[in-house]
Amino acid sequence: MKRDDIFALISRVRAAVYEYLAGALQERGIEGLAPSHGDILAALFREGQLGMTELARAIRRKKNTVTVLVAKLEEQGYIERVADQEDGRRSFVSLTRKGLAFRDHFSRISAGLLAKGLSGIDEAELEAARNCLEKMLANFQA
């Protein structure tokens, strides 16, 4: 592969991942969710409840982007926002019953994605790829 093809390849991998996730959601009859909602749901499955700033930090996205994603998830009934009793400017985000019920689907879809995407890739290759991608990302964040 030529050096100048790497970002095009990364872009195609990202598109393939999104296509896989969208298809998996559709196969399960799940409407209203997009692959971009996965980071938020994963963070809430892990942490239970987070403030908006902490959520943005946890998923490494800008707060305004997180606000849009949270609004869509709230509209779909997967999460709820609750105002902080001590600071009215702050709100917390947590999963609803519908959000908690989605966890099994989430786990199965994630396992399928990993199995498909990492098939034939050994641990050393995976670690080398991860290290390379982390360095690339750091270059853009410097």
Your description of this structure?
- The protein is mainly α and 142 residues long.
- The chain has helices at residues 6-27, 38-47, 52-59, 63-75, 97-101, 103-117, 123-141; strands at 49-51, 79-83, 91-95.
- The chain has a single domain, classed as Winged helix-like DNA-binding domain superfamily/Winged helix DNA-binding domain (Arc Repressor Mutant, subunit A, Orthogonal Bundle), CATH 1.10.10.
- Helix content is 65%, strand content 9%.
- A hairpin with a 7-residue loop joins strand 2 and strand 3 (91-95).
- The longest helix has 22 residues, at 6-27.
The CATH homologous superfamily: Winged helix-like DNA-binding domain superfamily/Winged helix DNA-binding domain
Number of separate domains: 1
Number of strands: 3
Order of helices and strands: HHEHHEEHHH
Q: What structural class do helix, strand and pairing data support?
A: mainly alpha
* Count of helix runs: 7
Please state the CA-atom Rg, rounded to the nearest Å.
17 Å
Reading side by side through the largest sheet, how are the strands ordered?
A: 1-3-2
Rounded average pLDDT: 93
User: Given this structure, which CATH class is correct?
Assistant: Mainly Alpha
Helix content: 55-70%
CATH fold node name: Arc Repressor Mutant, subunit A
Q: Spans of 5+ residues with little confidence (pLDDT < 50)?
A: none
CATH architecture: Orthogonal Bundle
| Spatial separation of the terminal alpha carbons | 26 Å
Please sum up the structure shown:
With 142 residues, this protein is mainly α. It is 65% helix and 9% strand.
